[in-house]
UniProtKB/TrEMBL annotation:
Gene Ontology biological process: carbohydrate metabolic process; cell wall organization; conjugation with cellular fusion
The keyword Lyase is assigned to this record: no
Biased composition (Low complexity): 79-99
UniProt-recorded Gene Ontology molecular function terms: glucan endo-1,3-beta-D-glucosidase activity
SUPFAM superfamilies named in the record: (Trans)glycosidases
Described purpose of this protein according to its UniProt entry: Glucanases possibly play a role in cell expansion during growth, in cell-cell fusion during mating, and in spore release during sporulation.
Organism: Maudiozyma barnettii
Membrane-crossing residue ranges in chain numbering: none
Protein name: Similar to Saccharomyces cerevisiae YGR279C SCW4 Cell wall protein with similarity to glucanases
UniProt record similarity statement: Belongs to the glycosyl hydrolase 17 family.
Pfam family, one: Glyco_hydro_17
InterPro entries: Beta-glucan_modifiers, GH, Glyco_hydro_17
Keyword entries, A-Z: Cell wall, Cell wall biogenesis/degradation, Cleavage on pair of basic residues, Glycoprotein, Glycosidase, Hydrolase, Secreted, Signal
Cell wall biogenesis/degradation listed as a keyword: yes
């Protein structure tokens, strides 16, 4: 079943037939956020932030410094292998300022759908990708619309793909589609990570044990297909914090974290807020897993939600803040406005496009 058909159904009001939450944000309120929020309050450059964390609480601060180093390692294409990244974090964790780099983000998410939910053509995908060459990683969510093939054909040679098998009842088919695309249009070296499922625990669509089974199934099929890189599930930061069993399955922690949905964070503080969530996830996993933010952005339109005000100016401010604070550990959300989506909570869902006018 193709995603575009499901999206079209959903837009027509037959939502129950669709996996209703495809790419929709449904982050739950985070009751404990406020208790740790004071740890990171000002953006002072990377070293300054780390010092602030350390001063706030010696124990948490130490792990936070390590978390930053870990996050940076996870976000570095050349060190995405969990062993090297995890090894450096547990042994040192002392020099985050040397491993977290400001500037452009690690990557950006991309979905190949036209406004009506139909698949973009290969040439439209190529035009889109030509605007994304400054991002080292392109994150895709599914294998429909020949997107793996089309993006492999269109991407710059140095760019890597963070792939997604969206439908967990079609893991074997997803791996097969990926394998065929990779063998025809690239190599496994083009793939930094394969993820299975997006926000399943956050959305109440799977238990942590089920997520473990999905990852295991995907990893076996991918290994048989010749892929030996990272395999993860993606969930929200709060789902991992509330369900730390999730730490046991993925090769590293791939989490979505949107400051807008926090409601108490301004666009100016989006970056420090994301950094704080990296630290919290790292701590929730006992310092054993790297953390990569697989979605973080800010809407350019929609309703004001507490201190979170959507606007084009605030989107620029928030993205700059994220890039300056933890860009090397973050895949930004998202390349272009998603007009194919439902309006979503607070009417923001369509308007996270960073390159859209
Ligand atoms: C996850 O790992 C932790 C630490 O090794 C362990 O205590 C826990 O039982 C594991 N959970 C599951 C569901 O395997
Ligand atoms: C935002 O702050 C208010 C007031 O302190 C608090 O009641 C609310 O729970 C906070 N929201 C979140 C998502 O933390």
């Amino acid at each position: 079943m193709r995603l575009s058909n499901l999206v079209t159904l959903s837009l027509m009001g037959v939502a129950s037939a669709a996996p209703a939450r495809h790419h929709q944000h449904i982050e739950k309120r985070d009751a404990v956020t406020t208790t740790v929020k004071t740890q990171v309050t000002v953006t002072q450059g990377i070293t300054g932030q780390t010092n602030a964390l350390l001063q706030e609480d010696a124990v948490v601060g130490t792990t936070a410094a390590a978390a930053v180093a870990v996050a940076a390692a996870a976000g570095t294409t050349s060190t995405l292998e969990p062993s090297s990244a995890a090894g450096s974090s547990s042994s040192s964790g002392s020099s985050p300022s040397s491993s977290v780099t400001a500037g452009n983000a690690k990557g950006i998410t991309y979905s190949p759908y036209a406004s009506d939910g139909t698949c973009k053509s290969a040439s439209d995908v190529a035009s889109d990708l030509a605007q994304l060459t400054s991002y080292g990683i392109i994150r895709l969510y599914g294998v429909d619309c020949s997107q793996v093939e089309n993006v492999l054909k269109a991407k710059a040679s140095s760019q890597k793909l963070f792939l997604g098998i969206y439908y967990v009842d079609q893991i074997a088919d997803g791996v097969s589609t990926i394998k065929n695309a990779v063998e025809s249009y690239g190599s496994w070296d083009d793939i930094s990570t394969v993820s299975v499922g997006n926000e399943l625990v956050n959305g109440g669509e799977a238990s942590t044990a089920q997520v473990g089974e999905y990852i295991s199934t995907a990893r076996s099929a991918l290994t048989a297909a010749g892929y030996t890189g990272s395999v993860v599930s993606v969930d929200t930061f709060i789902a991992v914090i509330n369900n730390p069993d999730l730490c046991n399955y993925s090769d590293y922690m791939a989490v979505n974290a949107h400051a807008y949905f926090d409601e108490n964070t301004t666009a100016e503080n989006a970056g420090p807020w994301v950094l704080e969530q990296i630290q919290r996830v790292w701590t929730a996993c006992g310092g054993k897993k790297d953390v990569l933010i697989t979605e973080s952005g800010w809407p350019s339109q929609g309703q004001t939600y507490g201190l979170a005000v959507p606007s084009e100016a605030n989107q620029k401010t928030a993205i700059s803040s994220i890039e300056d604070t933890c860009g090397s550990a973050t895949i930004l959300f998202t390349a272009f406005n998603d007009y194919w989506k439902a309006d979503g909570a607070y009417g923001v869902e369509k308007y996270f496009g960073i390159l859209s006018d």
